[in-house]
Amino acid sequence: MFSIRRYQDSDWPAIWALLHATFQTGDTYAYAPDSSEAAIHTAWVELPMATYVACAPDGQLLGTYVLKQNQPGLGAHVSNCGYVVAPAAQGQGVASAMCEHSQQEARAMGFLAMQFNLVVATNQRAVRLWQHLGFAVVGRLPRAFRHQRLGLVDALVMYKELGV
Amino acid sequence: MFSIRRYQDSDWPAIWALLHATFQTGDTYAYAPDSSEAAIHTAWVELPMATYVACAPDGQLLGTYVLKQNQPGLGAHVSNCGYVVAPAAQGQGVASAMCEHSQQEARAMGFLAMQFNLVVATNQRAVRLWQHLGFAVVGRLPRAFRHQRLGLVDALVMYKELGV
């Protein structure tokens, strides 16, 4: 059981702890493993159109995601999201719920599609989850991700038209 | 005959005139047709790693391009470029020369690949030119570009590994 709501400033310490630990693994997200707190605050809170958190009933942070335009101007009808789930909350459907929530939010904001630009091909759990939620693999980028254990690996572009 | 060199501040008035006229057509680049000069200066001069110009021997601006990282951190070994050729300079090989130049520059900076994120599928001249210069179509984004005459059209993701 959890709820998803908009970010508020008091969420930041828990989000930073989660993002810092997650990005340090260097196997899923492009953010440099040694990214500073200020850089990640900019990327996760200041630049996106909206930031969200998934919380347990006791307020514990289970996950967080961001929603933004994927391109400016004439590509601004396509949204982009990034999701992070707390290690202790894996397997509870948090990523799935955040992705469904993000699609509703994107539709409400007028977006016509959602694009993921850099899904690490070796992250098969994520690829399967996004496919299950209606996203198609529309592109494959050769050796576009510098995996911290595996070296250069392919990344996928995934896409879903949101309909109305 | 033309030369390609780094941007200098005195180039801006001619570049802005070219970019403003180009983006107003709304058929090739994502920048909104009504983008302000300040917004385009940020996008074309401040945010990229480097900005270049192609000039005729008399100094006239024939084209301009930008070079940047396509992703942060673990995707930062992939470069991204955007090129604009002056209408009066079409057909002289300016785009081709700028693309070749950008690949040399990107290699020299240590990039391993170059990615174009949003090549408008109806811009067949550009698609064929990039293919001729070694780029592959690695993805197709359904209706990802809002063409000002044709409505929503597909966009292509194009990619080239730069080798060494």
Q: What is the CATH level 1 assignment of chain A?
A: Alpha Beta
Strand order of the largest sheet of chain A: 1-2-3-4-5-7-6
Largest interface: chains, residues each? A-B, 38 and 38 residues
Order of helices and strands of chain A: EHHEEEHEHEE
| Radius of gyration of chain A over all CA atoms, rounded | 15 Å
Number of helices of chain A: 4
Number of domains of chain A: 1
CATH superfamily of chain A: Gcn5-related N-acetyltransferase (GNAT)
- What's the assembly state of these chains? homodimer
Which structural class is indicated by helix and strand composition of chain A? alpha+beta
The CATH architecture of chain A can be given as 3-Layer(aba) Sandwich
Main β-sheet description of chain A: 7 strands, mixed
Describe the protein in words.
Two copies of one chain form a homodimer. With 164 residues, chain A is of the alpha+beta class. Chain A has a single domain (3-161), classed as Aminopeptidase (3-Layer(aba) Sandwich). Helix content of chain A is 29%, strand content 35%. Chain A is built from four helices and seven strands. Chain A has helices at residues 12-25, 37-46, 94-108, 124-132, and strands at residues 3-6, 50-55, 61-69, 78-85, 113-120, 136-147, 151-161. In chain A, strands 1-2-3-4-5-7-6 form a seven-stranded mixed β-sheet, sandwiched between helices. In chain A, strand 6 (136-147) and strand 7 form a beta hairpin. Chain A is globular and about 40 Å long. The first copy, chain A, starts with a strand and ends with a strand. In chain A, 41% of the residues are buried. The interface between A and B is large, with 38 and 38 residues.
